[in-house]
Design brief:
The protein is mainly alpha-helical and 70 residues long. The chain has four helices and no strands. The radius of gyration is 12 Å and the shape is elongated.
């Protein structure tokens, strides 16, 4: 996968996760079977499998921090 393609996929995944975290409460996440641990795992996978920009790393860090508060 090229760097540009990898970055675009990562961008889309980060936006999706950010959107879901803004919409779902912790109770909703657990009810749906998508607890904070699931989202943390997805974010770590994005970091490990895609070529990310500093902005993308920063966004993931913010999302991970939000999930740690959950």
């Amino acid at each position: 996968m090229s760097g540009a393609t990898s970055s675009k996929i990562a961008h889309d995944d980060i936006l999706h996760i950010k959107s879901m975290l803004q919409r779902l409460s912790i109770q909703d996440m657990n009810t749906l079977g998508l607890p904070p641990a699931y989202w943390r795992k997805r974010l770590r996978e994005i970091m490990q499998t895609h070529q990310l920009s500093k902005i993308q790393f920063d966004e993931i860090d913010l999302l991970l921090a939000r999930l740690l508060e959950a």
